[in-house]
Design a protein that fits this description.
Helix 1 (13-36) packs parallel to helix 16 (309-329). The protein has helices spanning 13-36, 42-46, 50-71, 79-103, 105-108, 116-120, 138-159, 163-191, 198-207, 215-229, 231-238, 241-261, 266-288, 293-296, 302-307, 309-329, 337-373. 40% of the residues are buried. It is mainly α and 382 residues long.
Length: 382
């Protein structure tokens, strides 16, 4: 969810657009689930859960790109520095919102809190039951687990050999991980075929599961690997930006239609998530292609929405519920335009406030810490 902050000068409009799209989809989906309990936004709200998968693909690429770039640099990759940077990025916002859930009963409503240690250790998603407080942090748990494991896997891969050997190991590991996820989903789905509560079983053991939901993260890492280990092919692909955009939109359209037909079916469960991963990977490629429409067009407001996306993701659910409750007392239904607009505006405001008060100060702290650790440039020879 958190993505990667970059300076304004180095922002890529296409990636900002995708990140803004991802958070918009999630907010609309959660509105239909937890506020209106109706198809308020049609199929867009129904499929909005895929915004999380788009976030996963973006994170996989951006973090994989950071790690592989550092491994190929003269200074090398610092594991401790990577973890500190990641924790400074994710923990302050998370802790601030977790405090609201733990200390302000109105913020969590009637939903029960899990033991605090599950939130603090990012293991909340393991066998998570729907209907608990801060349940949408399940995706953050998967990302944090990914951040812990990927650097170690990259360092191990770098130590296994040089050139072609290293590349074959990396691609083999990625393909094995995707196949393992498909096998895990197939096995778990079949084991729960006769479960009394099929929907609850699906979310608890498949949808929220770390070993079942890594497809998009792995697709993002595959893009980073392609960029750093096959630069010639990478450049040739980026020359076809609009074709990549069209192909990505087509694949995602097929995946959306398939999931809308039966989100919880066996075939969709096994193969639908890799299909989404492929579609989002193609969109990310298009966003990075200099001549593509997605890369060139600067969507008004997308950069700000992308910058606040992590904060909005953490706060929007409770904010929308609270605002809708107040408007319901005044006689306005959840599907009325005034309620929808008020909830969207409040979600944006709450995310912006969290960004300004918590996230931005820690990002400045991280920047100063980075500058202090970076080696000073060598003096010019005269």
């Amino acid at each position: 969810m958190d993505g990667v902050n970059t300076g304004t000068a180095s922002r890529i409009h296409g990636l900002d657009t995708l990140r803004a799209l991802a958070v918009t989809l999630v907010v609309l989906h959660h509105y239909t689930l937890f506020v209106s309990d109706a198809p308020t936004f049609g199929w867009v709200g129904t499929m909005g859960w895929a915004g999380v998968d788009l976030f996963f693909a973006l994170s996989g690429y951006l973090i994989g790109n950071q790690i592989l770039a550092a491994l190929g640099s003269a200074s090398g990759f610092g594991l401790g520095r990577f973890y500190v940077r990641r924790l400074l990025r994710t923990l302050p916002n998370f802790w601030a919102v977790l405090a609201l859930y733990a200390l302000w009963p109105a913020w969590r409503g009637d939903t029960p809190m899990l033991p605090l240690w599950q939130y603090l250790t990012f293991t909340q998603n393991i066998h998570l039951q729907p209907g608990t407080a801060f349940s949408h942090a399940w995706s953050l748990c998967i990302e944090e687990q990914f951040y812990m494991l990927l650097p170690a896997a990259a360092i191990l891969g770098a130590a296994l050999g040089q050139g072609g050997v290293r590349q074959r190991w990396a691609w083999g590991a990625l393909l094995l991980a995707v196949a393992g996820g498909m096998l895990a989903r197939a096995t778990i789905w079949q084991d729960g075929e006769n479960a009394p509560n099929r929907l609850g079983y699906y979310y608890q053991y498949i949808y929220y599961s770390s070993w079942c939901r890594a497809d998009e993260l792995l697709a993002g890492v595959a893009l980073a690997l392609l960029k750093h280990r096959a630069p010639g092919l990478w450049r040739r692909l980026l020359a076809y930006g609009d074709a990549l955009l069209a192909a990505g939109a087509a694949v995602i359209g097929v995946a959306f239609a398939w999931f809308l037909d039966d989100h919880y079916g066996f075939a969709q469960t096994v193969a639908g998530y890799p299909l989404l991963a492929l579609g989002f990977a193609l969109l990310i490629l298009a966003a990075l292609a200099p001549h593509s429409l997605l890369h060139r067009v600067r969507v008004p407001g997308a950069a700000g929405l992308a910058l606040w996306s992590y904060a909005i993701y953490l706060t929007h659910k409770s904010v929308s519920i609270l605002v809708a409750q107040r408007l319901a007392q005044a006689g306005h239904g959840a599907e009325e335009a005034i309620t929808v607009a008020a909830c969207m505006a409040a979600s944006l405001a709450a995310g912006g406030l969290l960004y300004v008060l918590v996230e931005a100060p820690f990002m400045r702290l991280r920047a100063r810490w980075d500058a202090a650790l970076s080696p000073a440039p060598a003096p010019a020879l005269r």
